[in-house]
Design brief:
single chain, 68 residues, mainly alpha
Length: 68
């Protein structure tokens, strides 16, 4: 069944968890990277959404990965 717009956030969160947990095979990472690049390119073609997301991220003050 195709994912709906409401399903994507959860699906991406689950993908993140699986990557962090090592449940995605290394051999699958190059194809996954290609697919994720295509998603980011499509996302970046939506400048309003990109700018809004950046503003929302700054407003929360949440940092996903600590600085080294």
């Amino acid at each position: 069944m195709p994912l709906t717009r409401r399903d994507w956030l959860h699906a991406l969160q689950k993908l993140t968890q699986q990557l962090d947990d090592g449940r995605v095979y290394d051999r699958d990472l190059p194809r996954l990277a290609t697919a994720l690049d295509a998603v980011l390119e499509a996302y970046n073609r939506r400048p309003y959404a990109r700018l809004r997301a950046a503003d929302d991220h700054r407003a929360t003050g949440i940092q996903r990965y600590p600085r080294r």
